Amino acid sequence: MGRGPVQLRRIENKINRQVTFSKRRSGLLKKAHEISVLCDAEVALIVFSTKGKLYEYSSQDSNMDVILERYQRYSFEERAIVDQNIGGQANWGDEFGSLKIKLDAVQKSQRQLLGEQLDPLTTKELQQLEQQLDTSLKHIRSRKHCVLFQNQLLFESISELQKKEKSLKDQNGVLQKHLVETEKEKNNVLSNIHHREQPNGAANIHRREQLNETTHIHNQEQQNGATTSSPSPTPVAVLDSVTTLNIGSSQSREGAGEEPESQPSPAQANSGKLPPWMLRTISNR
Fold first, then answer.
1. Second label for 184, Cα 20 to 30 Å away, from 170, 225, 232, 242?
2. What is the structure's pLDDT at 212?
């Protein structure tokens, strides 16, 4: 048969009780040492016998005082948290009651300011309410005047800015007109310069063509062995003579507002200076 459960109760026999205490104490200390070594835990064991004798055990790495101090600090913090929660829950009811009273007072004062529930008020309370309304009305009026003054300043600044904008637009229009006129004058000057350069360019081209033709004719006559009464002029002399003819004609054309006078032909004017072969060429032209 198996062993049944042992019923735990106080041992009445004093000797047996002392023997059991000694055995169980040794086993308890052994178990505390084992859990401290195997699990690397900080263990503190305190046992008092019926005669008041102390038996204690602490881990090898820790001191009994250190463990007890840690235990007291931890237990104090736990109690403080628990007490705070309990105290907060207890104060919620009181705070709710005080807030409800304040809300009722504010609502009552608001209704009285609107002219409601004035019957239970005394003469002194009505006078205080009137003074309160007068003070509030003064504050409202002063605030109203401040807002109106600020709005007036704002409108004035807006009007000044609009005037400045209008003046700037006018100035911009004047500058644009001036710019357009300047562009027109510039274009006119450029066109006049262009028109003036065109006749000069045509005259230069005509002079070059004459010089080329005279040089070509002179070369042909030299090749054919044509004889003249005077020696043939050099190209430099021919160039000078043609230039003299052109200058005289251009000066007559450039006279401002005067009609050109009738002048003799180039062949007649330069018959004494030019050789006969050149006179023939000019006469043919």
1. 170
2. 78
